[in-house]
Amino acid sequence: MKLRCFLLSAALALLLAGCQAEKPVETVSAPPEPSQEQSALPEPSPAASEPVSVPPEELTPEELLAEQPIDETHDAFLVDTGGKLGTLLVTVELGERGPNPNPEWESWEYPVYLSVWKPADMSQPIQKLEGTAWDVDWNAYDRHEELDANFDGYMDFSVLNSMGNGASSWYLWVWDEGAGQFVEVPEYREISLPRCNPETGVIDGWARNSGAGDGVTTFHRWEDGKLVCVRRIETWWEPDEAIRTEEEITVFPMHLKVEDRIDGELTQVHYQYFSPGESFASEQEKWESLDYHGGE
What we know:
single chain; 296 residues; mainly beta; six-stranded antiparallel beta sheet; four-stranded antiparallel beta sheet; 4 helices; 37% strand; globular
């Protein structure tokens, strides 16, 4: 009986072992291959990966002018040349005399530096100019003027050199369309308080000497592209000609001289002496007309 039970147990153990040997082994399957559409991620476009370069906004000449300093030592203005370069920006700076100033300068003169700019390209000035100015006048008066000084249809500009009680001096740069730049006219500095008359083509000037109303009146015209004086009227009195009246008043006789341009030179064409109290104004007024050449 015991032997039968033993044999039955052994058979049962062998049967269980065979079942375990035939049991399949579980394996982990690989994920499915992606389709062609899914196999590659989209490449970023250059526009999305790189910053977009936006060109700087181009400022108008008026906007550029508004950005320029205008103060005790700076000035700026626009000149519409009327030529191929159009409107240009001019900046002006009053410089320092430095330790070794120009020996030709007066003690009150300082250097002035001018730069001409093309608004479409402000990388560097297209022209640099220089002059001098009286430091005491820099803030007291208008420092520049845009004008057609040579009456050729192109705009020019002038800049103050000096200003006194009865006289002034200005630089003038006229526009040369062929050269594409401004050219200085040194003769303009000889004209005090210049006034340009496009109807007559004459630039007149006036420099007062004293409270007596005497002084120098000039008239300039353009001849072959050069500015020349065509008439000069001078009135004056001599200190050593003083006369004491019965009322103990000091009076002076007055002198009037007129010079006209003849053969390229100023030549005296009229002189007149005026006794004390005698007015010279009416005679001077006659000669202020360039058509007048003496007589009634």
